[in-house]
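task queued by scheduler; priority normal; single chain, no ligands, no partner chains; default sampling; output format set to structure tokens
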Amino acid sequence: MTVEREPVADGVGPESRPLPGADLGVALPISVVAERMGLSQATLRMWQQRYGLAPTRTTAGGHRRYSRDDVDRLAAVQRLIADGVSTSDAARAVLAAAHHDMPLPADADPIAHRVCAAALDLDGPTVRWLLRDHLARTDAPTIWETVVRPVLGPIGDRWDQLPHGIAVGHLLSHIATSVLAEATPSVSALPDPAPVLLASVPDDPHDLPLVALAAALGRTGITATVLGAATPAATLARAAEQRRPAVVVLYAQMSELADASVFDLLPGTTGRIAAGPGWDRAHLDTAIPHVNDLTAATAAVMTRVSAGRNGS
């Protein structure tokens, strides 16, 4: 559940050329762009809604207009389609050519580059739209592993070198938290709910990985309550006493805040899992597993919940 930090070159989409005959100094209405590109206005509107190929300029009267860059992107999509690429893949490839200076990991989804560029521009609505749109085609664990983590890592490493570093990190974390929370199935949709408590150690302000874990667990039929960041030890103990969860996952991002004594406050029948890069295996009881990625955390919780349901 930590963030990979692996510098690589930014992904670059296909080159695009200006639309022949277009007045590049003027923002163009959809009727002109459709005529010059040989496309119907209905097709352009579908590309806007379905693939995010929307005009980015707005007139004083509130009308949307295509800029030079917008037209170039459409032309690039047309060329890829002519080469046999599907429209959705062509749009993703072209829109992935977002310009930024963050070294994202090689396995980052192309959408991660667009999310990164929008976050660096403090464009919250675009970040939210990108994550929600991508989530409609995949799932929360994939979004976390291939989009959110690859962007948060470099931003976190370089926040003090960015003009609005803290704001960028907070913007992305806040939006990702809300989008992932929306993807978590409700209790009524899940059979045989088994309570799991997810919390960060006292004073640790990070809880986005726990939201991602709750969404991943929801897909397996396991419900989880996220107590959130910086959960006081006494609060966690009272919650565990009241809920009697099958397992408590305690997340630590920073080693100086990873206090293993918090586990001692939990009921004896409660399973314990230490998650995050802050924990030192040497300081944990041998019965407490340590996990540091979403897949391992999900598997560890499932194992403990299954054991509880089977009475072992």
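post-processing summary
- The radius of gyration is 23 Å.
- The longest helix spans residues 140-158.
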